[in-house]
Amino acid sequence: MTASDAAATAPDAAIGPVRQSEIYLAGRLPEPPVDPDALRAAAEAALPEAAFAYIDGGAGTGSTMAENRHALDRWRIVPRMLASAEQRHSGVDLFGRALRSPLLLAPIGVQELAHADGDLATARAAATEQVPMIFSNQASVPMEETAEAMGDAPRWFQLYWSRSDDLIASLIARAEDAGCDAIVVTLDTPLLGWRNRDLDLASLPFLHAKGIAQYLSDPVFRAMLSDPPEDDPMAAIARFLAIYTNPAIGWADLPALCARCRLPVLVKGILDPADAERAIDAGVDGIIVSNHGGRQVDGAVGAADALERIVAAVGTNVPILFDSGIRSGADMFRALALGARAVLIGRPYIYGLAVAGEAGVRAVIRNLLAEFDLTMALAGCRTIAEIDRSRIIRRE
Ligand SMILES: Cc1cc2nc3c(=O)[nH]c(=O)nc-3n(C[C@H](O)[C@H](O)[C@H](O)COP(=O)(O)O)c2cc1C
Ligand SMILES: CC(C)CC(=O)C(=O)O
Predict the structure, then answer these.
(1) Is 67 domain-assigned?
(2) Is 141 a member of any domain?
(3) What is the pLDDT of residues 197-231, one digit of tens each?
(4) Range of the domain at 91
(5) Which phi and psi (to 5°) does residue 267 adopt?
(6) 123, 158, 260, 387: which could form a disulfide with 107 (CB 3.0–4.6 Å)?
């Protein structure tokens, strides 16, 4: 049994109470703040305007981001009493690996925008807290260096479906060598969404060399350039923009992609039940219900509403993960009760990174898991399996 397996199987009897005491007894204000709105405001204060706008922003008017919150809030938890929930166990098994909790860090590009230590600070925090980090295709640091910072802690790799098959093959092989446990293929970003705040600032901060670190470190990508990217960075960025996604791909292409991966494949960005069925038919090992944190289609369905419909259509034999709008342990509970096997958080940990680097990411993870543990205790659940649909009701 590895250290992470042991952590995942031991009952986490007191995560929430331990964290509460730490904060109450410390005699100083927690940094970053616990409250999600205060956390966001602290990140805004810590960052240049354009960096915060890019990280915080959504597509168009931001209505999908708002709808993500409403869609989660509509589900109300029904606590049960006298459930003998003193000992709680929040470990889950995903693709044969025992995880400490049903929480992962979503792939987030260009983390150096939030903090100089960027992906490496996140990686160290994730490893310490034993929460899987999903390396972004658009990371600021090559995946080999990020993996090195994590020891044997769990990590996955997120792939954008490039126009170049050779580049896809190279990135997948590198992810396997870097010890990733799964490949997440993001489907909802064949083109970048219309992002009002970035447009008004005429700033797209991921468009600089650090945002293409996975590519600059890739032999297949480098071979596509006439000059080394160190000599002509703009040509490298132009090449990246020309090939990093492929809007022409369709469902018929997915089985071949799944077949070429030795690792489990998840598709991220599924919102429609029929698409979930197609993905399962194509052979995916998991689905991530997500609207990219409201960054792609303004006016899109709230992610939790999509989750409910997708679980109703395809069940939960193929693991369904969820992101977009999770801000609290109560939100984690709601998503699990709707049928998610685990959830991802995006902006909250990046806000923590912006405010306090590695320690900030750790604090965000610990606060979230503490609140989740207390929600389980107070709702009367001892295990993740007990968090089922009977625990929530929908208010209109
Ligand atoms: C600044 C930023 C960069 C992101 N970069 C990526 C990325 O490189 N790949 C990807 O699949 N999703 C990316 N996402 C989407 C996240 O993985 C995730 O779906 C989303 O943040 C979840 O919503 P939340 O922020 O409300 O938790 C990004 C999101 C943000 C906020
Ligand atoms: C399109 C990517 C480069 C980054 C991303 O996924 C995002 O900004 O939401």
Answers:
(1) yes
(2) yes
(3) 999 999 987 777 677 999 999 999 999 999 999 89
(4) 3-209+244-386
(5) -105, 135
(6) 158
Q: How far is CA 223 from CA 166, 215, 228, 258, 271, in A?
A: 11, 11, 9, 26, 37
Residue 209's pLDDT is 64
Task: State yes or no: is 292 an active-site residue.
Answer: yes
| Residue labelled with tokens 């869609």 | 71
Q: Which ligand 1 atom sits closest to the C-alpha of 325?
A: 26
Q: pLDDT (tens digit, 9 = 90+) per residue, 246-269?
A: 999 999 999 999 999 999 999 999
The question of ipTM being above 0.90 is answered as yes
Residue with CA at minimum distance from ligand 2 atom 4? 109
Ligand nearest to the CA of 192: 2
Q: Which of the four pLDDT bands, split at 50, 70 and 90, describes residue 95?
A: very high
Q: Which residue pairs from 35-39 have beta carbons closer than 8 angstroms and sit at least 24 positions apart in sequence?
A: 36/327, 36/328, 36/348, 39/348, 39/351, 39/352, 39/355, 39/364
Q: How many domains does the chain have?
A: 1
For residue 176, the Cα-to-chain-centroid distance in whole angstroms is 19
| Residue 391 included in any domain | no
User: For residue 120, is it within any domain?
Assistant: yes
Cα-to-centroid distance, 293 and ligand 1 (Å): 6
Model confidence band, residue 12 (pLDDT cutoffs 50, 70, 90): low
Q: Is 205 in the pocket of ligand 1 (CB under 6 A)?
A: no
Burial (CB < 10 A; 0-12, 13-18, 19+), residue 317, is: exposed
Q: Whose CA is nearest to atom 5 of ligand 2?
A: 109
Q: Given the CA of residue 244, which atom of ligand 2 is nearest to it?
A: 3
pTM > 0.90: yes
Residue 290 alpha carbon to ligand 1 centre in Å: 9
- Rounded-to-integer distance, Cα 388 and Cα 207, Å: 43
- φ, ψ for residue 395 (rounded to 5)? -105, 145
Burial class (CB in 10 A: 0-12, 13-18, 19+), 78: exposed
C-alpha span between 80 and 99 (Å, rounded): 26
Give the domain CATH number at 199.
Answer: 3.20.20.70
| Residue of 70, 89, 208, 292 marked active site | 292
Amino acid occupying residue 224: M
Between β-strands 97-99 and 92-94, what pairing exists: parallel, antiparallel or unpaired? antiparallel
